[in-house]
């Protein structure tokens, strides 16, 4: 190679090297932040909300507030909503938390353990003390805060929903078959047998989601062993493989073996299970009161007036009672401590004052906030449920409430197999107990 | 050119940037992940040194055993299926369809360019039993047989998975092997035919031995791809029913990202890497031996 060519080569190499180097830097990215929109140390510059794709209720209400009651707060700190599917939500949250880039507010995750970990790591805002400082503590319903406390140990999430769960039934179908709303397990199974014989699918449930089936197992345990049934398991004082625990799984498995859940329950997704009920193709649906928005909607073909609610029935000789309603706070919303500033505080105050009325008025769904607007029209079915809640003595959680992520996944992914008979009740409980590891 | 490659600085300039990028986005995370195997914890709770605990757990964990077994079963069955069907198709292209094969080749190749999730949704609908029967169950009903809940039991779910993945990939292997078959000199075939070889004898004595190198490449491709199966399982069965169709990759993903146990997840990843390595070495060795003989 001649000297001139070498020099030319060298000259052309210099920008190439520089370009490659710059490219490498861009690619390897010292890209801090990522998904977060936090400013430099002084809190959020946008009111970002990471929502579950499947749950649009909270996002809809916040959007409504941003153009209505909370317009001033929204002008100061604009609301920005991003969605993440429920199945990958915990992963996304962990990723953002690991990068210290949590959004301003976000759904608290699928398992309470994740929010507890975030809180232990100092990443969550203490809602109770913040609300005390803001002077809006009275806007939180005591029943909702106590449910949050029993889930997370302290009030670290906003109760955007306050749900009770139980069996919703199609009044017309029950009447046509001479069935009264069941209050005991035997009445329920008799009703199911009558319905099956009459060619009506007794229960609609999503085996793809799994939890609508494991909820039945959990409730059966609360009725037979008592409200502390699963606390005992969490504390290591009892095992899911104990005979009285396996009995619950066996009872639910029997519903499946009798064919009460219809065909292909493992492939039924959440929406399909809801549609099966609201199109009159199934008599019972175990679901939480968040479904009120679907029941009160125009798409409900059987009409809200045709739907009734009973608590999970008593089991003969059991310690629990059907006055103990299964309760949860739906999709609680946690707040990033790092993102908190005065403007976020203003937004939270506005949410506290207006969320209850907006949720009830727009969606017909009960939230954990007080309803500070007497003019809100409450749909009759919602009002009926409100009465049931007021009459209930106590609340219980759900089957997986005190489990970690792994046991929760195992429980929910194997639920369909339990009712299709692919695994025995003993095997089901063994699988879940193995993941609890105590 | 020799001058350029003889110049160390030039080599550095040409290879350096690529090597740097490769190191930063491939080697560093791999080594990082290797380091994680000695720790327990997550990005939220922090990491704690746990020595070889993760490895001890790996060997006693029934979930890993189940996932490993599924992975191997899937890899073997699918490799055999993909390569056999692909080979049969390539023979069809070369010996029967000949010049008219381009349309068939294109059609059979088409599924490989479709997104896996789309194909999975298609198969979910085809094999659906509820809320309404899919086309497969409708077909079964025609013969008076009851509908089957394909995704309700491990065996049938596995069957659907295998059928879907073979359908998806057979076109690719057919084209790969077709290229190999085209390389067989026409004179050799011609002289074999003159010697009286025809049909099966021709395939067994001439075609198979002469297309062995490309056949082995296909097997390596296939087994390494199938050992790392992830997207089609996630989209079609999500590892279910229960955990019966959960391969090591999905278990690793769930352990690390859903359960937040990065250390144990990395340990499962290491196991998968070792298996891939062993399989590749095994196949390379046997292929080298065969080639020297041939």
TrEMBL record, chain A:
Annotated signal sequence range: 1-20
UniProt source species: Herbiconiux flava
Keyword Signal included in the entry's annotation: yes
Keyword terms: Signal, Transport
Recorded family membership: Belongs to the bacterial solute-binding protein 1 family.
InterPro entries xrefs: Bact_solute-bd_prot1, SBP
Protein name: Raffinose/stachyose/melibiose transport system substrate-binding protein
UniProt-listed Pfam families: SBP_bac_1
TrEMBL record, chain B:
GO cellular component, one term: plasma membrane
Subcellular location: Cell membrane
UniProt keywords, alphabetically: Cell membrane, Membrane, Sugar transport, Transmembrane, Transmembrane helix, Transport
Presence of the UniProt keyword Transmembrane helix in the record: yes
Keyword ATP-binding assigned: no
GO process annotations (BP): transmembrane transport
Signal peptide: none
ABC transmembrane type-1 domain: residues covered: 68-283
Listed transmembrane segments: 12-32, 74-96, 103-123, 157-181, 202-223, 262-284
Principal localisation: membrane
Classification via Gene3D superfamilies: MetI-like
Alphabetized CDD domains for the sequence: TM_PBP2 (cd06261)
Bilayer disposition of the protein: Multi-pass membrane protein
Similarity comment: Belongs to the binding-protein-dependent transport system permease family.
Protein name according to UniProt: Multiple sugar transport system permease protein/raffinose/stachyose/melibiose transport system permease protein
């Amino acid at each position: 190679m001649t000297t001139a060519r070498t020099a030319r080569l060298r000259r052309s190499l210099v920008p190439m090297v520089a370009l490659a180097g710059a490219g490498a830097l861009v690619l390897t990215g010292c890209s801090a932040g990522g998904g977060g929109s936090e400013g430099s140390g002084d809190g959020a510059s946008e009111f970002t909300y990471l929502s579950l794709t499947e749950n649009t209720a909270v996002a809809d209400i916040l959007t409504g507030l941003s153009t209505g009651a909370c317009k001033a707060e929204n002008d100061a700190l604009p609301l920005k909503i991003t969605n993440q599917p429920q199945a990958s939500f915990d992963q996304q949250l962990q990723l953002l938390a690991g990068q210290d880039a949590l959004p301003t507010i976000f759904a608290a995750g699928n398992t309470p353990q994740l929010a507890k970990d975030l809180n232990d790591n100092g990443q969550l805002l203490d809602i109770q003390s913040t609300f005390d400082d803001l002077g809006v503590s009275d806007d939180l319903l005591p029943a909702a805060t106590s449910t949050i406390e029993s889930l997370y140990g302290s009030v670290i999430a906003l109760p955007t929903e306050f749900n009770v769960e139980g069996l919703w039934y199609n009044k017309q179908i029950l009447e046509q078959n001479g069935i009264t709303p069941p209050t005991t397990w035997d009445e329920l199974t008799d009703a199911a047998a009558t319905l099956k014989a009459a060619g009506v699918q007794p229960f609609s449930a999503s085996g793809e989601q799994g939890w609508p089936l494991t909820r039945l197992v959990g409730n059966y345990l609360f009725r037979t062993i008592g409200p502390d049934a699963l606390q005992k398991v969490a504390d290591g004082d009892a095992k899911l493989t104990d005979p009285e625990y396996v009995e619950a799984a066996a009872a639910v498995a029997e519903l499946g073996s009798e064919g009460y859940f219809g065909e292909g329950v493992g492939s039924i997704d959440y929406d399909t299970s809801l549609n099966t009920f609201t199109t009159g193709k199934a008599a019972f649906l175990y679901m939480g009161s968040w479904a009120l928005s679907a029941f009160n909607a125009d798409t409900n073909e059987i009409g809200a007036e045709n739907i009734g609610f009973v608590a999970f029935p008593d089991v003969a000789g059991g310690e629990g009672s059907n006055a103990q309603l299964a309760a949860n706070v739906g999709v609680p919303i946690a707040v990033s401590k790092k993102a908190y500033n005065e403007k976020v505080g203003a937004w939270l105050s506005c949410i506290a004052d207006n969320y209850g009325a907006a949720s009830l008025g727009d969606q017909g769904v009960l939230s954990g906030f007080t309803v500070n607007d007497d003019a809100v029209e409450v749909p009759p079915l919602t009002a009926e449920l409100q009465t049931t809640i007021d009459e209930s003595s106590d609340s219980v959680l759900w089957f997986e409430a005190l489990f970690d992520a792994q046991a929760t996944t195992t429980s929910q992914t194997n639920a369909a197999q339990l009712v299709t008979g692919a695994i025995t009740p003993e095997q089901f409980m063994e699988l879940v107990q193995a993941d609890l590891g105590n | 050119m020799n001058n350029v490659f003889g110049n160390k600085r030039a080599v550095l300039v040409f290879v350096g940037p690529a090597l740097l990028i490769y190191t930063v986005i491939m080697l560093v995370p791999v080594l990082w992940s290797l380091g994680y195997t000695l720790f327990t914890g997550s990005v939220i709770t922090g990491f704690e040194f746990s020595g070889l605990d993760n490895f001890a757990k790996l060997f006693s964990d029934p979930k890993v055993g189940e996932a490993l077994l599924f992975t191997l079963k899937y890899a073997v069955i699918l490799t055999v299926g993909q390569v056999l069907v692909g080979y049969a198709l390539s023979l069809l292209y070369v010996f029967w369809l000949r010049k008219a094969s381009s349309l068939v080749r294109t059609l059979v190749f088409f599924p490989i360019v479709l997104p896996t999730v789309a194909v999975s949704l298609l198969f979910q609908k085809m094999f659906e039993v509820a809320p309404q029967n899919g086309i497969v169950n409708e077909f079964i009903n025609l013969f008076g047989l009851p509908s089957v809940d394909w995704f309700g039991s491990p065996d049938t779910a596995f069957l659907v998975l295998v059928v879907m993945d073979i359908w998806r990939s057979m076109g690719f292997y057919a084209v790969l092997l077709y290229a190999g078959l085209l390389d067989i000199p026409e004179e050799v075939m011609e002289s074999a035919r003159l010697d009286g070889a025809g049909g099966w004898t021709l395939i067994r004595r001439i075609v198979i031995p002469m297309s062995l190198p490309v056949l082995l490449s296909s097997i390596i491709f296939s087994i390494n791809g199938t050992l790392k199966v992830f997207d089609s399982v996630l989209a079609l069965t999500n590892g279910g029913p229960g955990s019966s169709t959960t391969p090591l990759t999905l278990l690793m993903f769930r352990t690390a990202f859903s359960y937040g146990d990065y250390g144990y997840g990395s340990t499962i990843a290491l196991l998968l890497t070792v298996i891939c390595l062993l399989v590749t070495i095994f196949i390379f060795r046997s292929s080298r031996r065969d080639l020297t003989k041939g």
